[in-house]
# Entry
Amino acid sequence: MPALPPRLTDWFAVQGWTLHPHQMEMLSRADEAATLLIAPTGGGKTLAGFLPSLAELGETPAAGLHTLYVSPLKALTADIRRNLGRPVEGAGLKIRIEDRTGDTSSHTRRRQRADPPHILLTTPESLALMLSYEDAPRLFGDLRRVVVDELHALAESKRGDQLMLGISRLKALAPGLRVVGLSATVEDPPALARYLAPAGCGVLVADPGPDPDITMLDTDEAPPWAGGGGRYAIPAILEEIRRHRTTLIFHNTRAQAELFFRDLWLANEDNLPVAIHHGSLAREQRQKVEAAMAEGALRAVVCTGTLDLGIDWGDVDLVIQVGAPKNVKRLVQRIGRANHRYNAPSKALILPANRWEVVECQAALAAVRERDLDGEPRGRGPRDVLCQHILARACAGPFLAEELYLEVLGAGPYSDLTRAEFDACLDFAATGGYALRAYDRWQRLKQTEGHWHLRDPRAASVIRQNLGTIIGTETLAVRLRGRGLPLGEVEEDFAATLTPGDTFLIGGEVVRFDGLRELTVEVSRAPGRAPKVAVFNGTKFSTSTLLTHRIMGMLQQERWPELPAHTARWLALQRELSRLPSPDRLLCESFPHDGYEHLCIYGFVGRNGQQTLGLLITKQMEAMGLAPLGFVATDYATLIWGLEPVVDAAPLFDAATLREGLEHWLAGNAVMKRTFRNSAIIAGLIERNNQGRRKTGRQASFSSDILYDTLRRHDPGHLMLQITREEALRGLVDFGRIEDMLARTGGRIDLLRLSRLTPLAAPLFLEPGKVPVEGAGRERLVAATAERLMAEAGLG
Amino acid sequence: MTAHHPFRLLGVALEARASGALWHEESRLLVVSDLHLGRSERLARRGGALLPPYETRETLARLDGEIEATRPARVICLGDSFDDLAAAGSLDEAERLWLARLMAGRDWIWIEGNHDAGPVEVGGAHRAEVSLGPLVFRHIPQPGAVGEVAGHFHPKVVLAGRSHRAFLIDGARVILPAFGAYTGGMRPDDPALAGLMAPGAMAVLCGARAIPVPLAPLLRR
# Structure
């Protein structure tokens, strides 16, 4: 076991710091090839991960890169540099710590490659980029340790898969490399350990600390029937802000955060210093808030997931979660932001945004109390990420297929990849696959004397510009006209709906749209004007399986003493007028309302799954002549309206037909096209960037839609279509959960034919995001409209 | 309602077909506009989007279907049949043969469009415009023309929330929708198109069947 430098232990002693047992243990495991440390937020995880590096580097380390630290957030690397800098500088150690992210200047990057620091802090995307340069072997040849922070978060997305491929590459460049993963509490630690290092990985679980103090925020006013944002509770929240030192107010989406912040500001009569922080705001804006936060100058910050991960800013003593957390693990993470000390319980309030969320919040609280965490088992590593990795590998220099294959097997998510699967990805990277062979531009790799290499070395810069697995909705920068001050960004689709003079919210202020200049939205300030709804979204999460099961469990109770009276009454009324959904049966309600027939399906398969169910079931209804016109989905139900009543639901839910629908019909749907587009961008089939000229999202989706349709018709076995089908089982399509629901209910379908809409279905009528169905029903409406216009014109 | 929409232009009986083609039964004449063959190839050549090169076959298949259904003695392609002159030369062998088969045994006229001004290297006659009785066939509609059959604008209209390719028809002219795949569209209230149609004009929507609608209410915002 390497010892810490005496000057460092002295400094710890002066500060009155003692190491936690798990931090000591990490030091004694320093020589193990791979270790996964699981500790709660505030447990000194990051220091634990760095202790072996500090011990090995000693007081006067030799030059060269020793430790690479990878975290999912740029902000986190800056934070760690500050926090790690304190003991290192305090103890006078000659260790150089620098960060390198997308925000690092090109000058600094070049300098870092020529003269690397001892500890480099970076992100998965920046690592992928560094590995794609020809000098990667020199830069990483002496690397001794890798520390992956927030592994639980990375493992939930393709960023983690890309990182695992990168680490596998690092192991090949630097034999003997040791890997440490740091994670918050997860439901299945051994699975995460296999993900990090399939050849074997020790797991160290730290003491989880005291239970959090978490309750539902009681408000005088009952929450609304539908919608999000929790603005009804602003007076109660202001009261909480006054009572606490610093409050973090988490929202699930950026739009909700913006709307909430504006109303909070309008109601803030005491002028309490409050701020807003989310991923759509300009970097300068965010940094201002972060700095003010670190100085303790703010009483509250309204924020989204960008503040979710282990950033430690000042004295937060209360966390408020607005809207149902959708996921118990995320809630636990967020609670951890409060009272960021290991041995003190965190204090959190949870605020349901609507009536249904009262039930959901209650279920989440029960899960937190019982330390019941949710998590979906991870699938195999997605192959679009592998395609990108192969292209990036080719940028760094020629390679042998056999060697790269063995390297890829060393990455947890790809440890069971077959050689045939690998070869298909290599072939795709080389030629674009069968349908695209005809184009010269797709021919990217060539084999010469056994070695694969770029056919045209100039292609490397385009490949590098397109590295990364985060596919956001395309956004446009928003700037103040004239002064060019950046305010943030909005989604391109939203920008397209704006006409000059329209107002919207960004960064908590109302601005007027003046015009679009290339890829920039030009605005001027327009205080006091009523804003159009800011449509730019954060991620729309689906409620986790665990949480939906707990909710269905709650619905079976005789009475609901834990729920506020208004919500308990609502559920009781539903039971009286119709029925409450139960886990082992599928409840459907059929009723006429407002001139149309309605079918409400309580599938409880999450927003994405219910959306897919809506697409598949309306297709079935179309085939049965029921003339559906549209549907809307929430996390627990889908509401379909049309021209004919549904009187027999069983034929709609035949598993084989639904699966066939997924294969043949849903394949042509926009959701699948979007899924395809994301994978096609990651795999390098569609370029996001070309020599700095960004494609607008509209251009990219136009060409990707046509690509998709064409591949489907002419080359249905194409690798990208296989990948799209795999993705469809989870993510946006989430068919896996529909399959689970069908198995759970085993054909026990209750179709209730009712004379009017029911209490549980009513809020669905207020949901935004209605999807029209193109079919006979719509054609009947088109024909009827045309006939009416003809008659009115006297032509009928 | 029939699948196709019969109407008269200066007394000549015509049929607006659901596919977007125009049919003159008496002379067994089929008219299609704006095929834009070779579009993806041209876009790729000019460094634009790389679309898979299948739209030409798609368009030929549609045209094949219409020819099969109507058995025309004469076909007039109303201009912009090729996305540019080079695109005409770049059709692959199979597409060239397919086109030749469609052209075989019938009178075939290519009207010049703005995309394909000048003779192209496939068979058939090439004309700036063609007259037939009281009707004149040309690519770009001319203001004030009478008895004119033209294309160029790719008209599309929105009805009951959906966009449809459409014929625009009044007493003096008809404007055909684009027949080719991967082609965009123009709303009839676009300034370029707005002045052309007389009050009382009709739109005939393409799709599963041809649906006639008065144009005026569709222009209201």
About this structure: The interface with chain B takes residues 435-436, 438-439, 441-442, 699, 702-703, 706-707, 710-711, 713-714, 772, 774, 778-779, 781-783, 785-786, 789-790, 792-793, 795 of chain A (CB under 8 Å).
